[in-house]
Design goal:
The chain is α+β, with helices and mostly antiparallel strands. It has a seven-stranded mixed β-sheet with strand order 1-2-3-13-5-15-4, sandwiched between helices. A hairpin with a 6-residue loop joins strand 1 and strand 2 (12-15). The chain has one domain (2-274): Double-stranded beta-helix (4-Layer Sandwich). The chain contains seven helices and 15 strands. The N and C termini lie far apart (40 Å).
């Protein structure tokens, strides 16, 4: 196994492994590397859907086994770039976020694979919330250390992008109907590494003790700060066959725009969070 760290505060590319044929020692080594680097990139693995699910389960139970992230229908046609609810969800994914902060239990991580990529664009970016927290001024740390925020997918997606009546839409509105909206500290301690990190992103709309506008302004200020340092941000240019796994507890991520007349087919397996350490404070 060859490990090539990225020129960033996180992340590494891993070579000379066959993910479908890992032995127990290799699984343990990959898990340890994952905790250290938070993002692991495995070029040219060409995993089948079944192999992807099997690999993801090495990191824990799954929140869901497999979901296509794609603007291509099953018949191969390209979805309408402007008036298709699936594409609206893809546009939402282009904003910085953690997965499932809008659910009672935040996801632990995710495995992502590339099956069809556009000729240009469509990268996936990640941002290191450990380094972002460490780099904050003491004044800002003092301001946010005891603040919590409500995370709402219904607000971040439906209100900003709009969706058709669910009875006539292919979009399944996963996470829209969660009530109450989960309340999460802006600063969390990673359950396995003990490192403090920010939990922010596009799903934040309310912070107790603030007006909604003040809360959203603070969330935006933190996001812009966290994503402004290029040592803390990495965008991966996909090639067909690439596989990645990232730690959702300490990284935000986003998709990048591409020409939506071109197809992009990715598959996402989401790793379930610990029911205690990743539970929203109002669900404990």
């Amino acid at each position: 196994m060859k490990v090539e760290p990225l020129n960033r505060s996180f992340g590494a590319k891993v070579y000379d492994l066959s993910l479908p044929n890992l032995n127990e020692e290799e699984v343990r080594s990959i898990y340890d590397l994952w905790l250290e680097y938070a993002l692991l990139i495995f070029p040219q693995q060409h995993l089948t859907n079944t192999q992807q699910i099997k690999f993801a389960k090495n990191f824990g139970a799954l929140e869901f086994d497999l979901s296509p992230i794609s603007n291509v229908r099953n018949d191969g046609s390209i979805r309408d770039a402007n008036d298709d609810d699936i594409v609206k969800s893809l546009r939402g994914n282009m904003e910085w976020h953690h997965d499932s902060t809008y659910m009672p239990i935040q996801a632990k991580g995710a495995v992502f694979t590339a099956h069809k990529v556009p000729s240009k664009g469509g990268e996936t970016g990640w941002a290191d919330m450990r380094s972002a927290y460490e780099g904050l001024s003491q004044t800002m740390k003092d301001k946010i250390d005891n603040l919590s925020a409500y995370h709402s997918y219904e607000w971040s997606q439906k209100e900003r992008f709009g969706h058709k009546d669910p009875t006539v839409s292919e979009f399944n509105s996963y996470g829209f109907d969660i009530d109450p909206k989960p309340l999460r500290p802006l600063v969390k301690t990673h359950a396995e590494t003990g490192k403090k990190c920010l939990t922010i992103g596009r799903h934040i709309n309310k912070i107790p003790g603030m007006t909604d506008q003040e809360a959203q302004n603070l969330a935006r200020e933190l996001e812009e700060y966290a994503c402004s340092n290029q040592e803390w941000v990495y965008h991966h240019s996909w090639e067909v066959g690439d596989a990645v796994i990232w730690d959702n507890r300490c990284l935000m991520h986003q998709a990048s725009m591409w020409d939506l007349s071109e197809g992009r087919i990715m598959y996402h397996s989401r790793i379930e969070g610990d029911p205690i350490s990743e539970a929203a404070s109002n669900y404990l």
